[in-house]
Specification:
The protein has 510 residues and is of the alpha/beta class. The chain is 29% helix and 27% strand. The strands form three sheets. Strands 10, 11, 12, 13, 14, 15, 16, 17, 18, 19 and 20 form an eleven-stranded mixed β-sheet that branches. Strands 4-7-2-1-9 form a five-stranded mixed β-sheet. Strands 5-6-3-8 form a four-stranded antiparallel β-sheet, with no helix packed on it. Keywords: Membrane, Signal, Transmembrane, Transmembrane helix.
Length: 510
């Protein structure tokens, strides 16, 4: 987002706000705090005597015939507590030193008939609540408010006491207005506390704030995530990819995946063989970072200016027409077939069917990998070749040889030509219809077999540029994507093993 570290700012806010809230709540305003809670406010019934036996006689004032008629009475129980984190001393009450009263409980529309202290968390509190300490009751007749005055009681952290009062209505009807405690603390506050059941609104607000911060970070990261918009290594431009037809499907899919992240990146594909791709890179790639060649194996001699980069270990397989009926061959049998020493599949346990040997044309990286890893240098020159289509049309007796230029032609020829044998990149063959793969000496073309040196037919896929690529070029970004990004998943899905995932990446050489 234009280089502004919004994610860092959000993280700092997410940490700072809870800390500030804690300091504000418990160190500053909440460090010294008195709380009050109305635990009961109910009309007088017979149940009061059962809950507080012997209390009502204390509350009913003496006076004989002059005693007030106790009609429309209610009983209120108020808890006063030190809800802060420090002790509260007598000097902490914000009232004149000469005034012994520190708290006032107001009962709108009611007068106080009587009162008593019913519970002390510490017996020592009783010394501050005796008659003559400032405790008492009175009435503000002008505003019809009954008032209980409470002294400046010193309270340690967590201390509390309760006041039970019997009241008589003086105005109004229905539910009584709620009692209110009024007082001031120096450097603190007095506030109503709630029963600790459920979640407090402040905690809910803090949780909501943190959720909002997390959501904002998620949206920000989603916006910066390569999967949702422009990739972190997204470069616009056009890149032409040439070379290996065996590796073409994997490269095409990787380019499509890169294009999902980088809408301004354009790819063109002109694969026609490894050798032709290298030649074109050598001729047209100088000072042209928009051209990249893919090769099944190293470049060989004649291309001194081409810079190699290993991409993945690729496995190949022998393939046959389904009519051949042979599912495993030894290396020597493959060599005999491609030397023309086997002219009928009966000699290898198959049906009475002449052998049709299909090779890739010269310049094919797959053909070079086949020669280097399977046939070997001692193989005699290939017999004369003819047209694959001509062989299919004339069906000559004995062994016949033909060549095809690209992988798709190899797969189609093997599927259409009875008795044919060829080779292909394994993942292409596995997806093709009308061909069957052949194991080599009982071993299958997978990574573990190759790393264990039991399966011989494999090679390394290379990318070549003419000289070093500019770091900000699409070609350089795409290579980084292939070797270190989601592109590796694409290569793996096509049966290749990215070189960077090998136990020893330096061993990713043919």
């Amino acid at each position: 987002m234009n280089g502004f570290p919004l994610d860092i700012v959000l993280a700092i806010i997410g940490i700072a706000v809870p800390i500030v809230a804690f300091v504000w709540e418990f160190v500053l305003v909440g460090r010294k705090r008195l709380g009050y809670r109305v635990q009961m406010d109910t009309p007088v019934t017979g149940e009061i005597e059962s809950v507080f036996p012997g209390v009502l006689p204390q509350l009913r004032p003496d006076g004989g015939a002059t005693a007030p008629d106790l009609q429309d009475l209610s009983v209120v129980l108020v808890r006063i507590e030190n809800s802060g984190i420090t002790d509260v001393d007598s000097a902490d009450y914000a009232s004149p030193e000469s005034d012994p009263v520190g708290l006032h409980i107001h009962f709108p529309h009611r007068r106080v008939i009587g009162m008593a202290v019913t519970e002390l968390s510490d017996d020592a509190l009783g010394d501050s609540l005796k008659p003559g300490t400032g405790i008492g009751s009175r009435e503000d007749t002008q505003h019809r408010v009954g008032i209980i005055d409470l002294p400046k009681v010193p309270m340690d952290r967590g201390d509390h006491y309760k006041i039970l009062a019997i009241l008589q209505r003086t105005a109004g009807a229905g539910e009584y207005p709620e009692p209110v405690v009024r007082a001031k603390l120096k450097g603190g506050r007095v506030s109503e506390t709630r029963s600790r059941v459920g979640v407090s609104p402040k905690l809910l607000a803090l949780i909501g704030f943190l959720v909002a911060v997390i959501a904002a970070q998620f949206v920000f990261n989603l916006d910066d995530n390569p999967a949702s918009g422009e990739a972190a290594d997204c470069v616009s431009g056009t890149l032409t990819l040439v070379g290996s037809t065996a590796f073409e499907p994997a490269v095409r899919d990787a380019a499509a995946e890169y294009g999902k992240h980088c809408a301004k990146a354009r790819f063109t594909f002109e694969f026609d063989s490894s050798d032709r791709g290298l030649s074109r890179e050598d001729e047209e790639g100088k000072n042209n970072p928009g051209l990249l060649a893919i090769s099944d194996g190293p470049k060989g001699v004649g291309y001194p200016s081409l810079v190699p980069r290993t991409l993945a270990m690729s496995t190949f397989t022998m393939i046959v027409n389904p009519a051949v009926g042979v599912h495993d061959l030894t290396v020597q049998q493959i060599r005999d077939v491609y030397a023309g020493r086997v002219d009928n599949w009966q000699l290898l346990g198959g049906p009475d069917l002449p052998v049709r040997v299909v090779n890739r044309a010269l310049g094919s990286g797959t053909r070079e990998a086949f020669r280097a890893h399977v046939l070997g240098d001692g193989q005699p020159p290939s017999p004369a070749v003819t047209s694959c289509r001509g062989i299919a049309a004339t069906n000559p007796p004995g062994v016949s040889f033909c060549e095809v230029p690209v992988t798709n032609d190899m797969l189609k020829t093997i599927a259409d030509l009875p008795g044919s044998i060829g080779y292909s990149e394994y993942s292409d063959a596995a997806r093709a219809s009308g061909v069957e793969t052949v194991t080599i000496e009982g071993h299958t073309p997978d990574r573990d077999q190759v790393l264990g040196h039991t399966y011989p037919f494999w090679s390394v896929e290379y990318a070549y540029s003419n000289g070093e690529l500019p770091a900000d070029s699409l070609a350089a970004a795409f290579l980084r994507f292939l070797t270190g990004g989601t592109g590796k998943d694409v290569l793996r899905a096509h049966g290749n093993t990215p070189c960077g995932e090998l136990p020893n990446p330096t061993s990713c050489t043919p």
